[in-house]
Amino acid sequence: MNKAGDVRWLEQFNTLLRDSQGKLVALQGIVLDITQRKEAEVALATSEERYRELVENAASVILRMDPKGVVTFFNEYAEQLFGFSREEIIGKNVVGTIVPKTESSGRDLEEMIRDIGAKPEAFASNENENMRKDGKRLWLTWTNKAVRDSQGRVEELLCIGKDITERKLIQEMLLDSEQRYRAVFEGAGDILFLHDMQGRIIDMNQEALDLLGYTKQELLGLTPEDLDSRGKSMDLGHNIEILLTEGKLFGETDVLCKDGSLLPVEVLCSIVSLAGEPTILNIMRDITRRKQDEAAIQELEQRYKLVFEHACDGMYIHDMAGHFLDVNPMGHKRLGYSREEFLALNVRDVDLPGHEERFLERRQLVHELGSLFFEAEHVHKDGSILPVDVRATLVSIGGRDVVMAIARDVAERRKYEHLLVQAKEDAESASENKSRFVAELSHSIRTHLASILDMLQVLDATEVEGDLKRYVDTAMTSGRTLQSMFKDIMDLSKIEIGAVEIRLTAFVPDLVLNHVLESLRSQAAAKQVALVVDLGGTPLPAVVSDELRFRRIVEALVANAVRRTRQGEIHVTLSFLAGEEDEGRLLAGVSDTRHQGAGQEQAAEAGSGGERRDADNTLKDLGLSIAQGLVHVLGGDISLHSEPGRGMESVFHIPVQIAGNRESFLSQEQGAAFTQVGHVARGEPGDQAANGGSRVLVVDDNEINRFTMLSLLNLMGQKPLAVSSGKEALELLASTDHEPFDLVLMDIRMPGMDGMEVTRRIRESGEEWAQVPIWAVTAHAMKGDKERLLAAGLDGYLAKPVDKKELAAVLEQVKIQNN
Length: 819
Known about the structure:
The protein is an alpha+beta fold. The chain has 26 helices and 29 strands. The strands form 6 sheets. Strands 18, 19, 20, 21, 22, 23 and 24 form a 7-stranded mixed sheet that branches.
């Protein structure tokens, strides 16, 4: 302190003075007045304290960072806002702490921080998304100022940020609200206008422009009167007064479009607040379709009234309790009532008395099904009965379920129906008599023909030679030709009248083919014709189709080729063409190398004047016709090609399905070869005789048939016994005076007790002999015979005339079973 009392700050520098021996001799000092410097330091400290207090208490984020974004200062507000302490943030880069690498919009903020450090003047102020410690996003607006050194290099960046998250949220909400409003406004399917309180249009949606044909500039400023098609008849002031009073205005009008057309609209006006100002919202809905529908409904009502009033049928509308609500003129006049009288009635009054339950049942069915057709009898006012057909339909009128019934007078039709039924019964009776006659005639012809062929077989089995052998062979050939022709005629008649029924079974095609060819080999050998089979080298699968029809087609084509071929070879091919999934086709062909030829046939006919064709030619045509008809019945196709002197080729294909494993079907076929009708194993006779033969009971009412069968069995070395009736057969089987029989050959058609009845009684007897093998031997060929024979308990089927080889196979089968 000086004399004047002022405080002064001094800075003293002292130096020690020593003598030559180093002994301290004096103290030398320099004193400097530093009062001004101390005052400056105090002022600076005060300024810094005030600055720090301002920074720490500022309601803004204040931070400093180097040009790379590393934080060097972080104020208290920043700590509170971001959730980071100074210790956690100072020395760390802002990117990854308070600044995310990427903004929600996709902007690269890491690149932005680099740009701020490089070009701070370009980012004096900016907005960007920031991030709290907990991951929550914030929006801040920043003021950035560069702090440079003496060389002008950027040492630090002073960044002051203000939280604008709430403002951004409000902006986004406003934007979203505006977008939603605009989406609703523009996306509405109706015309939308905004009017000021003077009625002038201030805005409109795109639908208004599209439907009315105006541009936006043309509509702005117009009033509803300018668009009124009735020529300014709308009182705008009155309408606004109604709006102000009631808040809404509703009605219909026609709006004048730019092209002069009128658009019918339904109008709804209301007052809304837009930006704090009252505004009229005018919604116009296009009702063109509704107006068209109303016009169409009106037209339909007029048509309905015309139909209802002038219909030739009675038309009634009644409620669910049966009370009539409406009736057309034909409805009440036909029953003898006036309209007023009829509407006072109930459905029960016009139904036959005592039919209350029937009415209740019909009402329930109409309610459940919606519509019901039935026959009824209505009662006339005078008591007479009127037969009618009624169609009752459940309809809704005014939200109420009622029944609309249409009744047609069918008295005249019923009369003719009765006559038609009588005529139909007469025709069916005549048809049945005809079928029965054909069946009897067929059975008689085949029976006698079979007897002839059987006798010839017996004769052929004896040692005949020379001319007698030739006579027997000729008779056998002619008889078999006649038998084949008769069979073809019966098959062709079924095809022509559509009486062929498809029965799907599983079979192995080449096995069936082998059976067919085996039966024809003797005929081919007699003409020195070889049968050559080609299966393509690939085993055929088991298939599903009509086995009997397939067999008949192949038989007809091969037999036709045998008849026409004088010598040479007949080639038979069979293959399988796979299709989708388990489907495919059987492809078969029959061709001969040396054929009689169409030219030779025509020459033969020309030589006889063309007046006749021999039976053999007729038989050939029948065989081809049968094959063509059956192929088409099975859904396939067939082609025939013939050239004179070069033979004939027949190719057909039929659709089939794969049935399964070939080997399993082959084993089943072999095991069941003797138990299926029409499927018999082939064998050679003679083995039975060598082993003592089997005891065979022949049951047949025809003496010639019994004699023939006994002769054939004796020649084959068997032990046959014959009876003439089913009764005798039952007595003989039950008798204990002889050895049990190994086989019964049963005729089916016998007087008194037929073969199926005899078989049924044998099976149901319960005796030891009840399980004796029984095979049918018959010429019967009616539809369903095979199924009935098997169902009756028969083990198999031999067709007359009995083939010696087939009979030998049956005897061998029986012998194997007995052993």
